[in-house]
Amino acid sequence: MPIGSGRFTYETEEGWAKIPEGHEFPDASGVTVDSDGNVYILNRGPHPVIVLDKNGNFLRSFGEGEFDKRAHGIHAGPENYIYTINDNQHCVKKYTREGKLVMVIGKQGEPAEKWTGHPFNRPTNVAVSPNTGDIYITDGYGNSRVHRYSAEGKHIISWGAPGCDPGEFQIPHNVVVDQDENVYVNDRENYRVQVFDCDGNLKAIWQNIYRPQALCIDREGIVYVGEQLMQRDLFDYPKVGHRLNIYNKKGERLARIGDPDLGDGPNQFIAPHGLGADSQGNLYVGEVSFTVYGRRFDPPRIFRCFRKLRRV
Fold this sequence. Notes:
It is built from one helix and 25 strands. By secondary structure, the chain is an all-beta fold. The strands form six sheets. It has a five-stranded antiparallel sheet with strand order 1-2-25-24-23, with no helix packed on it.
């Protein structure tokens, strides 16, 4: 069943991900793709980072014992290091593709005082500049800041403050950086994406995006934004949340895909939280379907939380 329209038409490739027995998970909070097309799924199961090749075959897992139910964000940098965030650990971890920990930014388990702007208090996601290797971190749940670090982990600059005025944030939830050093930030509770230069100067605001959570950018500079519901009394509200938005770098919406109604059918979404794109324009969608939706059932139910959308 196709989803989308025009050049942004996709099909859910059922059965693509070959997850071994014992590696299943109820939530996929993050997805990223390295330069070889390998897909990394950050999940809230017993094997926190699951790595699949471009054909969906299982390669390995890593991070066992290092993450919990707040595993939150993952990003493959330009040199194929893998950066992760477990928000209640208050730090960013950098791994090799094989899962060897090589750097930690921040002090694990030692949060900065809430709302001070000092790194970190429950950070949400991370992105690396394709040009400089600088690291951008959204410090979202206990701060309203974006922090920029050098590739070596040295703090350079921070910007943002709590609020809804331009340049302020209510839960900066995700971040990507393009080839021109534009920094795109999902400002979730302000229902917008804000675009900055690398020094934090505001360049643009994209409005009318319902609680933007998932975010990625492809090699063509196309920006993908996933919307998500949280309010239980809105789960049956059509055309609100549970969709993907596709933009060019000017902020022009090129497509919005997903059924108006929430669900885990081939053309439906529940809770997009992580997005990845490969060199062929295929999308990989991670959802926190259990946390947002499935756990509210009696008894709790497991819904689809990861899929490949093949561009057709």
